[in-house]
Amino acid sequence: MEACRLASMQISQVNIVFGGNEFLASQAVRDIRHAAREAMPDAEQTDLDARTATNADLVQAVSPSLLAPRSIVVIDNLQEADPVVAQSLVDITKRMMANPQQADAIIICRHDGGQKGKGIVDALVKAGAWRDEVPKLDKPQAKVNFVRQRFESLGRHIDGRAAQLLVGVMGENPGELYAMCEQLCADFDDDPIMLERVRQYMTANPQAKGYEIADVAISGDAPRSIVMMRSVVEQGVAPVSIVGSIATEMRKLAKAAAVSAGSISVQQAGIPEWQLNRARGHLRGWTGPGMAACFEALAKADEQCKTNGGDPVYALERAIECVAAKGVPQQGFAPGDYGMFGNAGRIR
């Protein structure tokens, strides 16, 4: 299968990577530098730190030399540039953009996205530099958008639910998220990549396995969830991580119930709207005491996982059965196994 490649990237003679997530900003610099290297394979690369670089350093870096007629210059911490260096960079940008075909350098600047030094960025953009606005990835929807854009940059597409699953499992690690997008494209020809393909591919990821086990349990299929759990435990996944995954999904369910009851607002729930809507779809048949019983069962399983001489797998099985039954004791279980029940009505 043909390996994934970046779709043709827009680069200018002067490029500004502005703000955003630290990993993504660093990756953007690498991507632009790689594209510049392909455009000018004979160029010499120079790295400058604007905090210490002088005007002489800048002029020397962008000027041709006897050994390298062209150059690629990477300038970090642009926001800290000395005013003289900043003005010189703007002047160089104007000259290069006036006749880009004759320019013998590509400049890549990185700015942290704050207010300091923003005037330099504005002046460079006005002079013709290209500004790459890097996403912050501080909100779930921003992460989903990033996944979609990453697939598009690879010349491919991903289904919305598949992107949401990737974010739900790997959203806290942009590096893993970035790499997984590329790996999925490299390993599969599907376009778009659909939810089942992502699920299939992520079975080796313990966090994803826990998510799947929780999803099956909450849907009411205890036997299948337990079989999945036993299988991944045999593969070396710690039961405590599965307990954590189920507890996380149960907390989402509890928050969805609270929102539906008007006890808290959507904003106060503090989870992505798509996850909230998904949890709402599972609410029918649940009661407040039933949820409390499930959390109690999960707490017992967690304790067994962390206690010498305990039986975490058995406790986890009981917790899964409790969740699948919506906290209602089934035949063969004592009331105390799932907690005490009141007369609260079912959640509709």
TrEMBL record:
GO biological process, one term: DNA-templated DNA replication
Transmembrane segments: none
GO molecular function, one term: DNA-directed DNA polymerase activity
EC number: 2.7.7.7
Domain of life of the organism encoding this protein: Bacteria
UniProt KW keywords: DNA replication, DNA-directed DNA polymerase, Nucleotidyltransferase, Transferase
Reactions catalysed, as given in the entry: DNA(n) + a 2'-deoxyribonucleoside 5'-triphosphate = DNA(n+1) + diphosphate
Enzyme class: transferase
SUPFAM superfamilies found in the cross-reference section: P-loop containing nucleoside triphosphate hydrolases, post-AAA+ oligomerization domain-like
Classification via InterPro entries: DNA_pol3_clamp-load_cplx_C, DNA_polIII_delta, P-loop_NTPase
GO cellular component, one term: DNA polymerase III complex
Family (UniProt): Belongs to the DNA polymerase HolA subunit family.
Protein's name according to its UniProt entry: DNA-directed DNA polymerase
Organism: Pseudoscardovia suis
